[in-house]
């Protein structure tokens, strides 16, 4: 009898240890299956738009833009304009521009990549394509770690990725009013969490830019103007559902997630310093969200306003220095006192003939909660091939 009780006690302790182990490692899956979709699991059949839906599309692309705290809506042009303001595609100067960027976040855990193309159709119009990928790879899947008999098999641990993709196709054209241009883009969004869940979404963006005869530019970017949706489908097997239940987590169900419109107003002033191409430019952008109160500098409901400022200094059309301030918000300390925090950024760029290299160093001095990142991007300016059309 004592031997049986001893064995029972050992099995009980082993089971408890195994459950604790599962809880600890299963955190990764819960984070991306449940957390990634925000309040979707809590509002499974409603059409309420959660905050921060598709927020990976608000990070920004291009080290030149990130060095200026993303204050580029009024001045963007060429390959990055598909993302920032499609109206800037009408200013594509080359037959083809190719842009690319790679950055890493959270000590290299998350990878963020961007590829873009821009083609000058003629002197008045341009077309562009871009792809964004934000992903965490090699996440341990421990749902099959323990079989029905309570046996642990580490060979059952597999790896999966939680990845977000966005594909955009844009067109822009100069209008009859001098200095005015308009652009629009359609975007397809695909989000996956291993084999557990995936979603497809569709949205529309539109933008305007206007240049005065001297010094100033104005821009308006309307993102998700018709509200962007993501239709989520969850494909959890019985074992995974059982583990969800054992660890006290909600089993998510299929549902719809909506992203409400966001408007960005930008104003840039660009002033020449010498006849050799030296200049100083500064831009201020105002991000206006429509999904309720956010912790930004101007917080209200239903609209909140997040300002960010960027400065660029160009020397001899060869070297560019950039800096900016953004992510302004009030943070309450342990004494219940509110303090204004912000995120500073700097960057540099160099152009060699048809190649432009840009670098940005973000979150200097750790003024915000995010860790700093080193961001690199490249742009190729290609002329029309000499044998094209022959």
In short:
With 390 residues, this protein is mainly beta. The protein is built from 5 helices and 16 strands.
Helix coverage percent: 10-25%
Mean pLDDT: 82
What string, H for helix and E for strand, traces the elements in order? HHHHEEEEEEEEHEEEEEEEE
The number of helical runs is 5
| Strand composition percent | over 45%
Strand order of the largest sheet: 1-2-3-4-5-6-7-10-11-12-13-14-15-16
| SS elements, strand count | 16
Low-confidence runs (pLDDT<50, min 5 residues)?
1-48
Structural class category? mainly beta
CA-atom Rg in angstroms: 25 Å
Largest sheet: 14 strands, antiparallel, barrel
Give the overall silhouette. globular
Q: How far apart lie the N and C ends?
A: 93 Å
Q: How does this model look, in words?
A:
Helices cover 12% and strands 47% of the residues. It has 390 residues and is mostly beta strands. The chain has a domain at 2-272. A 14-stranded antiparallel β-barrel has the order 1-2-3-4-5-6-7-10-11-12-13-14-15-16. It is globular, with a radius of gyration of 25 Å.
Summarize the helices and strands and which ones pair or pack.
Elements lengths: L1 H24 L1 H7 L29 H4 L14 H4 L11 E10 L4 E11 L4 E17 L16 E17 L5 E14 L3 E15 L4 E8 L4 E7 L3 H9 L8 E5 L2 E11 L6 E11 L14 E12 L3 E14 L5 E15 L2 E8 L10 E10 L8
Antiparallel strand pairs: 1-2, 1-16, 2-3, 3-4, 4-5, 5-6, 6-7, 6-8, 7-10, 8-9, 10-11, 11-12, 12-13, 13-14, 14-15, 15-16
């Amino acid at each position: 009898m004592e031997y049986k009780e001893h064995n029972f006690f050992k099995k009980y302790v082993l089971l408890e240890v195994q459950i604790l182990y599962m809880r600890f490692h299963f955190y990764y899956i819960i984070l991306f299956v449940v957390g990634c979709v925000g309040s979707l699991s809590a509002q499974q059949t409603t059409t309420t738009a959660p905050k921060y839906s598709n927020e990976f599309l608000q990070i920004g692309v291009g080290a030149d833009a990130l060095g200026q705290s993303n204050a580029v809506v009024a001045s963007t042009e060429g390959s990055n304009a598909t993302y920032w303001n499609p109206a800037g595609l009408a200013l594509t100067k080359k037959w083809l521009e190719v842009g690319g960027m790679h950055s890493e976040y959270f000590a290299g855990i998350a990878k963020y990549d961007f590829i873009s193309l821009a083609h000058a159709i003629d002197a008045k119009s341009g077309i562009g394509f871009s792809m964004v990928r934000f992903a965490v790879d090699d996440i341990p899947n421990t749902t099959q770690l323990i079989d029905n008999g309570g046996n642990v098999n580490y060979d059952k641990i597999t790896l999966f990725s939680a990845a977000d993709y966005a594909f955009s196709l844009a067109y822009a054209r100069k209008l009859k009013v001098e200095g005015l241009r308009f652009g629009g883009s359609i975007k397809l969004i695909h989000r996956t969490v291993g084999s557990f869940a995936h979603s497809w979404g569709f949205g529309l963006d539109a933008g305007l830019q206007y240049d005065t005869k001297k010094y100033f530019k104005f821009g308006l970017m309307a993102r998700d103007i018709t509200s962007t949706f993501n239709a989520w489908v969850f494909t959890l097997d019985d074992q995974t559902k059982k583990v969800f239940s054992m660890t006290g987590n909600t089993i998510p169900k299929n549902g719809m997630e909506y992203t409400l419109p966001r408007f960005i107003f930008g104003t840039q002033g660009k002033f020449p310093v010498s006849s050799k191409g030296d200049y100083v430019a500064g831009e201020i952008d105002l991000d206006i969200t429509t999904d309720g109160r956010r912790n930004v500098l101007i917080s209200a409901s239903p609209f909140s306003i997040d300002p960010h400022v960027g400065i660029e200094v160009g020397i001899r059309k060869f070297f560019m220095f950039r800096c900016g301030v953004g992510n302004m918000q009030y943070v309450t300390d342990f004494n219940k006192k509110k303090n204004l925090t912000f995120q500073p950024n700097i960057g540099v760029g160099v152009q060699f003939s048809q190649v432009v290299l840009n670098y940005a160093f973000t979150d200097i001095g750790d003024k915000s909660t995010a860790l700093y990142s080193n961001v690199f991007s490249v742009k190729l300016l290609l002329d029309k091939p000499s044998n094209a059309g022959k």
